Amino acid sequence: MLVVPASHAAPFAAERVALVTAESQSLLVAVSLPSGRVLRRLRMPADPENVEAYAGEAVVVSARAGAVTFVDPRTLKVRRTLRGFGAPHIAAFAPGGDYVYVSDDERGQLAVVLGRAIRKIFVGYGAHHMAFSPDQHRLWVALGERARSIAVVDTRNIARPKLVGHVDPRGLAHDLAFTPDGHYVWVTYDDRSYLRIFDARTRRPIATLYAGAPPAYVRFDDASGLSEFGRYAYVTSGNSGSLRIFDWRTRRLMRSVRTAPGSYNLSVDRGLLATSSLTDGTITVVRGGRRTLTEGVAPAARDVAVVVH
């Protein structure tokens, strides 16, 4: 892989970094936080869309290239690229950290990756956004960006997942995430301005919350059980240019923050949140409910992952 050096190619100290997919440039851009300084630009397979990071590893998914690229967040270098997928879209790390699942919407498959793709199972065409339960026993997979069904996968044997059922999202589901206690799943939509909260055991909806203009995205900051961070849910509405911060236990809206238009995808780590704009390539960083950085880093920035570098 070609590494395109940035103008500030100095040795790196330990710091928080946002990894941003610059889809139209086929790059992954590493941005120092909170300064906004570009540390490095890494060449990716064509049209990198989504990036996910966990436990010292980052994964970039390029649907058009049918490729999944692994990046070392510490050295900001490409480790390896896997090919042979149809249209891979989303990567999700299992809570244990060793395995990565990749959804392939073209083939309707879920790929289990441990160094290589060791298993692929059919879960339904359009397989897209997905969420692990904190205990690693269940995975919910939205079957499409406008999903009429959510696949439920048994992941207790993480290397051999099994499709065990489906959930009716009661609308066109877009994104989803388990609460840190694993009891509920928050589901956002592409066709309505609210999200639904589902009981993870019964798979039935129990509450709704206003989420802004669809589509909305949701993440929780569990921060490895640190109570000062783990109480919040973050919901973005790119079309509204807003971030809503909820106390997920009480479901009370705590704060609303302005973001750049087109800021859909988000990443959160120990109270620091970053969201990226597909419209103008701006990343917005929020800490303590307040914006600390608004910086343009690319013509379009589809996704972002916050890592410790």
Secondary structure tally: strands: 29
Secondary structural class:
mainly beta
List the helices and strands in order: EEEEEEEEEEEEEEEEEEEEEEEEEEEEE
Q: How are the strands of the largest sheet arranged?
A: 1-4-3-2-29
Distance between the termini: 20 Å
Overall mean pLDDT stands at 93
Q: What does the main sheet amount to?
A: 5 strands, antiparallel
| Morphology | globular
Q: What Rg is obtained from the alpha carbons, in whole angstroms?
A: 18 Å
In quaternary terms, these chains amount to single chain
Question: In brief, what are we looking at here?
Answer:
This protein has 309 residues and is mainly β. It is 0% helix and 56% strand.
Key features?
309 residues; mainly beta; 5-stranded antiparallel β-sheet; 4-stranded antiparallel β-sheet; 0% helix; globular; disordered N terminus
Describe this structure in words.
This protein is mostly beta strands. The protein has no helices and 29 strands. The protein has strands spanning 3-5, 16-22, 27-33, 38-43, 48-54, 57-62, 67-72, 77-82, 88-93, 100-104, 109-113, 117-122, 127-132, 138-143, 150-154, 162-167, 173-178, 184-189, 194-199, 205-210, 216-220, 232-237, 242-247, 252-258, 263-269, 272-277, 282-287, 290-296, 304-308. The strands form 7 sheets. It has a 5-stranded antiparallel sheet with strand order 1-4-3-2-29, with no helix packed on it. A 4-stranded antiparallel sheet has the order 5-6-7-8, with no helix packed on it. It has a 4-stranded antiparallel sheet with strand order 9-10-11-12, with no helix packed on it. A hairpin with a 4-residue loop joins β18 (184-189) and β19. The two termini are 20 Å apart. The model is unreliable at 1-13 (pLDDT under 50).
